[in-house]
Design goal:
single chain; alpha+beta; endopeptidase fold (from Nostoc punctiforme); 2 domains; 6-stranded antiparallel sheet; two-stranded parallel ribbon; 13% strand
């Protein structure tokens, strides 16, 4: 026996050909796999990744909800439009009402001014007519009045005489509207007071006195007849006939109680109370 026989050999054991072949195959396969994986990875890195997202399919209930929402939106828009139109109409109506009110106020003011002007004109014309009547009635001056007093017919006896005497005693007194004596008179107040001397109670106004007693013709006058100017029942002046075509009356504020010529301002009618 060799002296080294008991020492194990330090040489690596031989590998069998089959094992070497297997290892080579495995190694080649791994490398091939890596190569493929690497190529695949490079290809994937070069090409963009496209991902498709699939949208959910609308169900019948969801479709109804969408439709209702659209209807509600449309109705809200319609309501808004209607409200806007109403607001606009209201604004126009308010503006028109304001304009109408202004126009009505202007019209009323114009009417008021026109009425005031018409009233003023009527009063002015009435004053002019009154002045004209007074001028026509006053045909005698103070001197002629004094003269006619002396030429007036003598009053009749009895009650008529009492009326004429009273009237003549008042010549020269003042004329005052509404006056009933003893020193100032208006036309009907003087006539009423004169006939009271004969026991005749005449009405107060010229309108009433023009229809008191019996109507007589102006061509058939007698002393003591009541003369009136204007219509019967609407007379604006009265006096008393004293004869010789003359009458005595409370004429106006400027003349007072005077005797005047009937031809200067003819009466409208006459009545006989005695």
């Amino acid at each position: 026996m060799s002296h080294t026989a008991h020492i194990p050999s330090h040489r690596k054991p031989r590998r069998s050909a089959s094992k070497l072949a297997l290892r080579a195959g495995v190694t080649g396969g791994v490398l091939s796999t890596l190569a493929v994986a690497g190529a695949s990875g490079a290809a994937n890195a070069a090409e963009p990744v496209t991902q498709t997202i699939e949208l959910p399919t609308l169900t019948t209930d969801l479709s109804s909800q969408v439709a209702r929402s659209a209807d509600a939106t449309q109705q809200a828009a319609a309501n808004y439009q209607l409200q806007a139109e109403r607001d606009e109409a209201f604004a126009k109506a308010a503006d028109q009402a304001k304009k109408d009110q202004v126009a009505a106020e202007k019209k009323a003011e114009a009417k008021k001014k026109a009425e005031a002007a018409a009233k003023e004109k009527a009063e002015r014309e009435a004053a002019q007519q009154a002045a004209s009547r007074s001028s026509e009635r006053t045909t005698l001056s103070a001197a002629s009045s004094s003269a006619t007093t002396t030429t007036a017919a003598a009053p009749a006896s009895g009650s008529v005489g009492a009326v004429i005497s009273f009237l003549q005693a008042q010549v020269g007194d003042a004329y005052v509207m509404g006056g009933t004596g003893p020193n100032s008179w208006d036309c009907s107040g003087l006539v009423q007071a004169a006939f009271k001397q004969a026991g005749v109670d005449l009405p107060r106004t010229s309108q009433e006195q023009s229809t008191f007693g019996t109507s007589v013709s102006l061509s058939n006058l007698a002393v003591g007849d009541i003369l009136y100017w204007g219509g019967a029942g609407s007379a604006y002046h009265v006096g008393v006939y004293i004869g010789n075509g003359q009458y005595l009356d409370a004429a106006n504020p400027s003349k007072g109680v005077v005797i005047q010529d009937l031809s200067g301002y003819p009466a409208s009618g006459a009545v006989r109370a005695l």
